[in-house]
Predict the 3D structure of the following.
Amino acid sequence: MRGTAGRRGAAAAAAALTFLVAGCSAGSTGSGAPTTTTTRPTTTTTSPAGTWSKAVAVAPGSNLSVVSCPAAGVCLAGSVAGQTYRLLFDKVSALGPAVPAPSPQGGSYLECATPGFCAAAPNLNQVAFYNGTGWQPPSTIAAAQGFTAVACTGPSFCITVDGEGNSFRFDGRGWSGNLGAWGAANQISCVTPAFCVAAEGGPSVWDGHTWTQPNDADAAGQLNSVSCATTAFCVLVDSNGGALTWNGQGFSPPTTVAIEPPLAGTNASGLTGVSCPTATFCRAVDSLGRVFAFNGTSWSSGTLIDGGRALTSVSCPTTTFCVAVDRAGNAFFSS
């Protein structure tokens, strides 16, 4: 527990992010100036999972399915309708859709490598890049069949997987031909252009040339999310509330972290997101609105920060800053 100083830090970060909120409707397409002022949130009780703010409205009524923070205080969030939102320390603003699409093919269709470089692949065969101020015109990859995930290490490397098991690589100039994968991925995490892990039917590893065939390291659940801190440490979380780790050689059996029934009306259940900036600091979120902390050895019990709603994604660029989003269009900040 970090005591008074930790609580003040989280309160200040959350308050700064809620002074000004703009363009939060699902139909907004501009980057726009702030138009609405919100009430400062107070913080929840400090726990092993950190001190979390109360809900900050980003896109009320929207289902935020992904958040990616390349640096503390700088994040992009995306909804299941394809709308994207920029979260800064002083405002939240709508960016509009990355590419014209009624609905993204996958929940982890957006990732930011740096504050000035993000990629989104929400359409059947298009990928768009964000340059720090707005989305650029998308590139079309004719052979793609419904992208479900994208990951980037920077402007010279991104990789995608589609619903048919096709994978494509960006090298800073253009997209390669089909590299071959094994099916739809719920998320991809890359440490270098020569090392990525995908949460497919099983975990799959990219070595810079090919994807390994997914193994049965987690036969009991659907892999929902993956985060790699180094080439020797990754965590994957599943729909049964389990977490498994990569140690550089292989994947461990899943460890039970949270157990709960599936969320009504969706197949998203159990642990829905994970983020690990280091091998001794991870945060995972679940479909009951809880956050779990990993300290390199064990997982904490869940801390409820979003009662009655489902947390869908979490991003921690550092050990002192995390953001989680939910199905009601809210964000929660921890520092």
Observations:
- The mean pLDDT is 84.
- The chain has one domain: 3-334.
